[in-house]
């Protein structure tokens, strides 16, 4: 039995620290080390704020110090160094443990743990200073490549998947997840690309190569894994690329049930193989993922207040300090309030100003109050609707524009803005997260032009909206809308100050339903890329039809002295 000590108070008091050293001499560790009064080391790891002696090493890693680090760095092709507390704990450490276990078989890759202490002998403090590592940033990851003088800093989310993507992007190494085979993993990557492009000839050619590779395998476990690769490829050729998603969900649900350890290992291997059929070149965000996996009541409350205050301020500005004219506002309001609870919603708008999103939300709030007063006696709409977090929209925002500082990351994430990396494709994590929100019946607002359109000329819409429509469990309702005048309210030039008395015109289009189109194209075994393009083309066409109508509406608005709003 080991005694447990509280941290950090005990370790910042020299007297208590000395007493703990003395007490530790009475303990026998599970390994074969002899108790040496002069060499007693407290090796413990935090677990639920307690400390277990003699467990400081993470399986799959080597622990180094200032004397041994250069030897490791100079003798291996790829070294991922983790600077962290000596006894880490929590979700980030759990993610690293899983990562270390899963990449243990990777050739030429060494995971080096560098424990940092700010008490006692202050282990590796000089090494931390040399590489600019601060305690408040722990854990800090740096990638050292043989022949390179400077390390590559990892600034993304501290998750197993993102660490794997980071290494895959920066080092030409294979990650041997349990149950996977290197040669078949590379074929799986090519097969995924062929499936996305609906290239059946390439799919069949890769399947044939996979059969040949499996025949050459000697290890029986690898042979069993090889059969899984082949079955997945055959199923995708027969059922289409949607099989990847369906099978992943099936395996995930089975793993949550009560199964034997042997069956659990088999399913986990299959899950790992399915991961091999995904693109790995996507880079992680340059900061930690801002949304908690399980938001606390406090987080939800603060988020609700953030959205409510911003919406209320924007509503005040647009209603009393601006002149707004809206055509077909009821289309938008009905989609937000009256659609079937299982039917997700996507609103698509042009992008003329950095204030487009909150000001457009203000328009929805204004429409809400107009209807509220109109039907007040019937009490058909509760006032709490726009202070209810789950009813409000999620928006997509460029990570290099709105998430550049920690305070901005906190503010915008509380306001339900999802950071996306422009140019990183439709399969990046933020787009997956947006798809998850739609699958829960949520509302996503997206500026599909991908940036503030300073020229205001029609632009090719990005395919992200097409992916959200094509791959959602239930096809979303899509409401396009075009606006003019937002860049007068907040000009795109310094000092970027809100202006009073400006006129804004908004033209809302009829809701678009894509159920029939998506279903028909999937029956025809059209590729997801083809479906994304078809959906995006339709939305683009409808959006720019609204542009012409909105320009006429705005001309009338500018010619009128009236500041009333219409719905």
From TrEMBL:
Catalytic activity: 1'-[1,2-diacyl-sn-glycero-3-phospho],3'-[1-acyl-sn-glycero-3-phospho]-glycerol + a 1,2-diacyl-sn-glycero-3-phosphocholine = a cardiolipin + a 1-acyl-sn-glycero-3-phosphocholine; 1,2-di-(9Z-octadecenoyl)-sn-glycero-3-phosphocholine + 1-hexadecanoyl-sn-glycero-3-phosphocholine = 1-hexadecanoyl-2-(9Z-octadecenoyl)-sn-glycero-3-phosphocholine + 1-(9Z-octadecenoyl)-sn-glycero-3-phosphocholine
A Pfam family hit: ERp29_N
GO cellular component, one term: mitochondrial outer membrane
Ranges of residues in domain Phospholipid/glycerol acyltransferase: 345-486
GO terms under biological process: cardiolipin acyl-chain remodeling; inner mitochondrial membrane organization; protein secretion
Keywords: Acyltransferase, Endoplasmic reticulum, Lipid metabolism, Membrane, Mitochondrion, Mitochondrion inner membrane, Mitochondrion outer membrane, Transferase
Subcellular location: Mitochondrion inner membrane; Mitochondrion outer membrane
GO MF annotation, one: 1-acylglycerophosphocholine O-acyltransferase activity
PANTHER family: TAFAZZIN (PTHR12497:SF0), TAZ PROTEIN TAFAZZIN (PTHR12497)
Protein name: Tafazzin
UniProt source species: Rotaria magnacalcarata
């Amino acid at each position: 039995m080991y005694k447990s000590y509280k941290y950090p108070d005990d370790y910042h008091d020299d007297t208590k620290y000395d007493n703990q050293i003395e007490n530790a001499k009475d303990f026998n560790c599970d390994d074969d080390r002899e108790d040496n009064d002069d060499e007693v080391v407290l090796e413990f790891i935090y677990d639920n704020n307690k400390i277990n002696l003699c467990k400081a090493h993470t399986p799959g890693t080597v622990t180094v110090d200032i004397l041994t680090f250069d030897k490791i760095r100079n003798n291996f092709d790829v070294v991922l160094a983790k600077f962290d507390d000596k006894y880490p704990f929590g979700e980030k450490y759990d993610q690293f443990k899983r990562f270390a276990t899963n990449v243990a078989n990777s050739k030429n890759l060494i995971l080096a743990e560098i424990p940092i202490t700010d008490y006692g002998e202050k282990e590796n403090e000089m090494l931390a200073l040399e590489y600019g590592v601060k305690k408040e940033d722990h854990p800090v990851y740096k990638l050292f490549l043989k022949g390179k003088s400077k390390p590559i800093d990892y600034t993304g989310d501290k998750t197993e998947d993102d660490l794997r993507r980071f290494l895959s992007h920066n080092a030409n190494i294979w990650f041997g997840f349990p149950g996977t085979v290197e040669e078949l993993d590379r074929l799986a990557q090519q097969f995924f690309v062929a499936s996305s492009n609906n290239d059946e000839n390439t799919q069949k050619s890769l399947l044939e190569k996979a059969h040949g590779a499996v025949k050459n395998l000697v290890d029986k476990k690898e042979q069993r894994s090889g059969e899984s690769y082949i079955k997945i490829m055959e199923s995708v050729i027969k059922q289409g690329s949607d099989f990847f998603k369906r099978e992943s969900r099936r395996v995930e649900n089975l793993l949550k049930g009560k199964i034997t350890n042997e069956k659990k290992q088999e399913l986990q291997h299959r899950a790992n193989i399915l991961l091999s059929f995904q693109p790995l070149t996507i880079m992680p965000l340059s900061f930690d993922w801002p949304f908690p996996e399980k938001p606390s009541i406090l987080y939800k409350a603060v988020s609700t207040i953030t959205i409510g205050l911003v919406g209320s301020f924007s509503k005040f500005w647009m209603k009393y300090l601006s002149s707004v004219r809206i055509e077909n506002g009821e289309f938008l309001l009905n989609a937000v309030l009256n659609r079937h609870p299982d039917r997700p919603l996507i609103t698509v708008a042009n992008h003329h100003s950095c204030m487009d999103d909150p000001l457009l939300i203000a328009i929805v709030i204004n429409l809400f109050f107009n209807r509220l007063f109109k039907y007040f006696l019937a009490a058909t709409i509760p006032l709490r609707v726009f202070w209810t977090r789950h009813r409000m929209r999620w928006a997509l925002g460029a990570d290099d524009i709105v998430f550049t500082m920690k305070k901005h990351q906190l503010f915008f994430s509380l306001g339900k803005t999802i950071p996306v990396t422009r140019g990183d494709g439709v399969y990046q994590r933020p787009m997956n997260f947006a798809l998850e929100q739609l699958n829960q019946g949520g509302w996503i607002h997206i500026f599909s032009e991908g940036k503030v359109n300073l020229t205001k000329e029609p632009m090719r819409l990005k395919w992200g909206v097409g992916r959200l429509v094509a791959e959602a469990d239930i096809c979303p309702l899509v409401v396009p809308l075009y606006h003019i005048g937002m860049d007068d309210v907040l000009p795109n030039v310094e000092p970027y100050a809100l202006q009073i008395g400006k006129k804004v015109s908004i033209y809302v289009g009829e809701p678009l339903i894509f159920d029939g189109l998506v279903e028909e194209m999937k029956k025809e075994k059209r590729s997801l890329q083809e479906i994304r393009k078809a959906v995006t083309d339709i939305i683009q066409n409808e959006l720019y039809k609204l542009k012409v109508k909105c320009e006429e509406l705005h001309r009338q608005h500018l010619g009128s002295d009236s500041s009333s709003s219409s719905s």
